[in-house]
Amino acid sequence: MENPLTRPPVIGICAPLEHARWAVWDMPAALVAANYLEAIWAAGGRSLLIAPDPALIEDPDSVLACVDGVLLVGGADIAASRYGAESHVESEMSQPVRDAVEIALVLAATTRGLPVLGICRGLQIINVAYGGTLRQHLPDELAATTHRRVTGQFAGNQHDVIVAPNSLAAQAIGSTAHEVVSHHHQAVDRLGEGLLMTGWSDDGVVEAIEAPDGYLLGVQWHPEADATSGVIAHLVEASSRLILENENKQQCPRSTRGHTKI
């Protein structure tokens, strides 16, 4: 019989520094939208915010040792210089320290075997971390605003996505076709080294990428804004399995006491 889980999985959430107002304060703060947190809690996980501490660029393992999975959330456009391009006139102001910290966390987390899920910008961070590039302003290329028809809200930004059968994306969604909510104007261009495209929309935009092994998944849409989505819960489940695997390894008898050496 499989051992019961001894503790809830802890999901590290990369939190940007943003200008915020609360109570009597108006100043920069480490900020994550509550719907990401609520999706983790609903799946039985615990959340730990990882602020963009510059020290993590060189030492990501110091915080990754405290978590069982990593969630990369949406936000500002990645600096185009990160993938050898000049910034588009419609690009948002980048946050270079956040970019560098999250890239370091992605690469170190996958090396450690931690499950990683990237949402929207998070998918793009995964792609750039592995040497990929981005399309900087989809309306210029598509002559449409399908992926962000309404700025500042998710309602009205729904569209269909198809994912490859038997992919990690299909497992997370629970099907190979899904209506998603999105809010982005950038997308994957050249795929990062070793990554697979496993989801797309009918206009050719890459909607899901993943590694061929382990748990590294990026989705271009926002599952935290969809009460019916199981994508974030799937990350929590993968992190729970990792805890069980590690605990089972520790419980395996390694002593040779009682054996006779001939």
Describe this structure as you would to a colleague:
- This protein has a single domain, classed as 3-Layer(aba) Sandwich (Rossmann fold).
- Helix content is 27%, strand content 23%.
- The chain starts with 9 loop residues before the first strand and ends in an 11-residue tail after the last helix.
- A hairpin with a 5-residue loop joins strand 12 and strand 13.
- The chain has a 9-stranded mixed β-sheet, with helices on both faces. Strands 2-3 form a two-stranded antiparallel sheet.
- The relative contact order is 0.16.
- It is built from 7 helices and 13 strands.
- It has 262 residues and is α/β, with parallel strands linked by helices.
- Helix 3 crosses helix 4.
- The chain is globular and about 60 Å long.
Supply database-style keywords.
single chain; alpha/beta; Rossmann fold; two-stranded antiparallel sheet; 7 helices
How is this fold's topology laid out?
Elements: E1 10-14, E2 17-22, E3 25-30, H1 34-42, E4 46-50, H2 61-64, E5 69-72, H3 96-112, E6 116-119, H4 121-129, E7 134-135, H5 138-142, E8 158-163, H6 168-173, E9 177-181, E10 187-188, E11 196-200, E12 206-210, E13 216-219, H7 231-251
Parallel strand pairs: 1-4, 1-5, 5-6, 6-13
Antiparallel strand pairs: 2-3, 7-10, 8-9, 8-11, 11-12, 12-13
Q: Give a short account of the largest sheet.
A: 9 strands, mixed
Strand order, sheet with most strands: 4-1-5-6-13-12-11-8-9
How many beta-strand segments? 13
How far is the first residue's CA from the last residue's CA?
Answer: 35 Å
Low-confidence stretches: 254-262
Task: Estimate the global geometry from the Cα principal axes.
Answer: globular
Overall SS class: alpha/beta
**CATH homolog superfamily:** Class I glutamine amidotransferase (GATase) domain
This entry's quaternary arrangement is single chain
Question: What Rg do the Cα atoms give?
Answer: 20 Å
The number of domains is 1
